[in-house]
Amino acid sequence: MSALIWTLVAGIGGAGWAMLALHRGETVNAAWLVLAAVGTYLIAYRFYSRFLANRVVGLNDARVTPAHRLANGRDFVPTSRWVLFGHHFAAIAGAGPLVGPVLAAQFGYLPGTIWIVVGVILGGAVQDFVILAASVRRDGKSLGQMAKEEIGPFTGVLAMVAILAIMVILLAVLALVIVKALAESPWGVFTLLCTIPIALGMGFWMKVVRPGKTLEATAAGIVLLLLALVAGRWIAASPTLAPVFTLSATTLSWGLMGYGFIASVLPVWMLLAPRDYLSTFVKLGTIVGLAFGIVLTLPVMKLPAVTQFVNGTGPVFAGSLFPFCFITIACGAISGFHALVSSGTTPKMLDRESDARVIGYGAMLMESLVAVMAICAASILDPGVYFAMNAPLALLGGDAAHAVLAVQHWGFTLAPGQIEAVARSVGETTLLARTGGAPTLAVGMAQILSGVFGRPLMALWYHFAIMFEALFILTTIDAGTRVGRFMIQELGGHFWKPVGRISSYPSAILTSAVIVAAWGWFLLQGVTDPLGGINSLWPMFGISNQLLAAVALSVGTTLIIRAGRARYAWTTLLPLTWLLAVTSTASWQKMFSADPRLGFLSHAAETAAAVTAGSLGAARGARLVFNDRIDAVLCALFLAITWAVVLSSARVWLRGSRLAAPQLARPDEAKGVA
Amino acid sequence: MRDLVARWAQTVRRIAGMPNYEAYVEHLGACHPECPVPSEREYYELYLKVRYERGGMRCC
Question: Which residues constitute the domain of residue B31?
């Protein structure tokens, strides 16, 4: 019976891939893409994750988890499998798996989809699962602590620096995504601004009026949020109010920096906790909505399976398919950030060891499915509309009339007036060069959802999607600035004691300012970049995220080898090798490529030449050159950290395979039963 | 019916990582009967401290 079911699942997945393969050169229904992915996930979960659980890690329910051993009713709480699955998924799913695939759609829908599916099965889900299992056996220790204890103190410090650098780039690029989505959009700005008083009100309610009654406050908050969304339409239509909420990209950037600074200094009950709840529910609701929308409308994908831009000439971001497809899509396939969650709250809540399989491996498969749906949402747009929205204004020629020609030049069709019509239908003045992925995803989602609920609601759905992305990006900015602040306080406390006092106001203000200045600098650089910012910042984010994944996989490999299971170390070495090839090639090209669109240094040289020739102001030129050099240095730093961690781990592997100490379990525990 | 709603609310709270006063009181009663039971207000303070002490990072 079981064999029959699994043959059927394999057949469905296979049929999906076959449909994609056979329909080259004509349009394909998005349903086949989703079926191919789901069928493959199920097979991988049934067979590969079982191999990982039984052979590689040796999960054993006889071993008591920290949730029971250290139960304190607060963070160490045994939680039933499916509840924890939901909790873990809500913690790992964010803007990343939605934005990356939209950008990578410039290569066509097929390369991205294959990477998302294969990458998650052999890479991302393996990483999340191995780190979760390892952390569970070490009382819920964090990735940094494990790196320090299992590999060495130097690697521990490197891991810390890597996490801090990634945080800065992550915050900058996410902030840039909402700046690009909200600039010159009074509706979006109004809705987002409303989330601040709503969150403050919720916070006050939960802390002062009815302490701890979070559910009722959140329900009220969501209703108010939806009202704000509807009210945004009136604001955008009002001739007096619309200009008040129409902000330039630069103004928005300064506003975000101010918000991030204030939010990270305020007590958590005021903004962070209420925002956290709001964005969790809106996020889960939207993902479920998107899934239902795709299943109910079965949209047809208009984007080609593969575009000519695999050669690296694409307008959305520079660089060829290898390595940049695998850098652009980080979160849906493999995301180093997840290692922080898998070694954070989740291991402290795991009821039984065997639950780690569905939570570590399974939740990541779900996240990957979200990424596949994001590709679908981007691919159902007319390719002409997709490129007009995602190419920088400089490449589009500056206005809608020139954009029609530019898109034609790239080999796609954009009818005169088409992009304006789409903009009007979603309640925006323009959609040209709305880079960053969020507006594209929002248009795609609006098309899908209005297919279910009717055309007239299209503008509302578009702004719902924008609000949902902006909401949780703002939450990430709040939380991330705070995390960065704590890290600087911890690092700085070694040198000057007063900085290390976490809750002292002078220290909090100083360190928050430092972290906001760091990401704000990259944000402003992106906003003023003539090529649109996303072009240079998103690849840097991808590189840094994959770097963290390489650190996590090195730790994972170390743990497997030290547990005396070196013969299974290929399970983590395989994705690690791939990531090393990808990140090394990508950072090398970002530094030294002779193409000024791709290489930072050649872009700096080109800018300097333009200044000498007199076509660019000296002050602006000098700033651009300086930006390029900083970016190049950061790439070099990423590359150096990655290799330092891998090489220092490799030393432990060579020693460890001789020692073969059963360390995957804590020393006082029995070796797992295979 | 009332029971069902309460259980459902419990599940939703746990998924979102919200405070769970009843579970905490239950835990105290079972494991540390000698400890005083905090009020819901005190518990909420404690919860915020534990959950966000490292900044409460979510994923990208």
Answer: 2-52
